Amino acid sequence: MAQFQAAQADTVIAPSLLAADFARLAEAADAVEGAVDWLHVDVMDNHFVPNLTLGPPIVKSLKAATDIPLDCHLMIERPDRWAVGYAELGAYNVTFHAEAADDPVALAKDLRAAGAKAGLAVDRDTPVEDYLDLLPEFDTLLIMTIKAGFGGQEFIPAMLDKVRTARRRADSGHLELRIEVDGGIAEDTIAAAAEAGADAFVAGTAVYGAADPADAARRLRARADAARTPR
Ligand code: DX5
Ligand code: ZN
């Protein structure tokens, strides 16, 4: 019955700096200030994924350059060794990949102890069922809607089955869990992800590929909000 439903969490829009000009990251943050909730920072180590992006020194500089909460998505090997460092630099949320972690629950506890939200990511080929029982230990579940590694790929609708599965578990377990989708999120795909149960949306190309990134982020939010409105 409607009156017993928990209040729906506000939509989170998280532009991915991967699609911005890496020589102008502070300007990219300023361009979306006031229109977004988190800034998504894709850390890639050329081992867990073939691509190589940025690491702690740049996250440190970003933290000093913007007040937008930083959502660090670590596509790296050995997150047990490196992830807490991002929390210590002041990242709001630190998400590591399930495929790379030795002990995801221990690492989530360490992240929370260091003052960050703890996120678990599952890549395209990883079943979410294997991790459902761990979700009470996490603040964020990131479901890749592409294969992790590069921006600008095409959204894979079949990944939304994982979102639906995770949403059912989060709701039945009364978990305070953000369900975040990442990859190919744009004006023509965000509604389907929102309907499936996602409430946090990473968008690289759709925001920084637009002439007006803040306006693009606002349009994405409007579409997500409309799709999330209970009918
Ligand atoms: C890719 C990254 C994504 C990427 C998304 O592995 O995790 O965050 O920036 O880019 P788009 O939105 O262009 O698919
Ligand atoms: Zn990402």
UniProtKB/TrEMBL annotation:
Record-annotated active site: 42, 182
The protein's annotated pathway: Carbohydrate degradation
Keywords: Carbohydrate metabolism, Cobalt, Isomerase, Manganese, Metal-binding, Zinc
Family: Belongs to the ribulose-phosphate 3-epimerase family.
GO biological process: pentose catabolic process; pentose-phosphate shunt
UniProt GO MF annotations: D-ribulose-phosphate 3-epimerase activity; metal ion binding
Binding-site residues, a divalent metal cation: 40, 42, 73, 182
Cofactor dependence: Co(2+); Zn(2+); Mn(2+); Fe(2+)
E.C. code: 5.1.3.1
Cofactor binding note of this UniProt entry: Binds 1 divalent metal cation per subunit.
InterPro entries, per database record: Aldolase_TIM, Ribul_P_3_epim, Ribul_P_3_epim-like, RibuloseP-bd_barrel
CDD domains per UniProt: RPE
Organism superkingdom: Bacteria
Gene symbol of the encoding locus: rpe
PROSITE patterns documented for this protein: RIBUL_P_3_EPIMER_1
Catalyzed reaction equations: D-ribulose 5-phosphate = D-xylulose 5-phosphate
Residues annotated to bind substrate: 16, 73, 149-152, 182-184, 204-205
Name of the protein this chain belongs to: Ribulose-phosphate 3-epimerase
